[in-house]
Amino acid sequence: MYTVRTIEGQLNARGVKIAIVASRFNDFVVQHLIDGAVDCLVRHGASLDDISVIRVPGAYELPLLCKKLAERAQYHGIIALGAVIRGATPHFDYVCAEASKGIAQVALQSGLPIGFGLLTTDNLEQAIERAGAHAGNKGAETAAAVLETIRVMEQL
After folding, report:
1. Does residue 135 carry a pLDDT above 90?
2. N or C terminus: fewer CB in 10 A for the chain?
3. Into how many domains does the chain fold?
4. pTM, entire model
């Protein structure tokens, strides 16, 4: 049996400054994601004074605001939250593709942990499930992933 060094992050939010960038579109779903993210951060030691929520019109605007916040270098991580629900036109595909590519690009270019909490669902029921009904709360899961990534990066 071999023993290898393993680097893992802890869910410890003490002293961590987090920005939550959230879309207003589909707010009846997104607000549950925000609540889940804030709850996760506070349960793991974050101060409410260290959490900022920035609202944008929709998912398409998430990458630009994530980029602006990353450039300011005042946050340890960013949580991007939104909900895009498929409709009868291809608009869904364009918004989801550009938002996801943009958020990933900002994270890679800035080196800042950015959590991807953008729901991309086929219908309203799926969105509600992922915002806290039956499939957990993806806002909380995204917050936990950002915390863990911050703590891993501190060790590298």
Report:
1. no
2. N
3. 1
4. 0.95
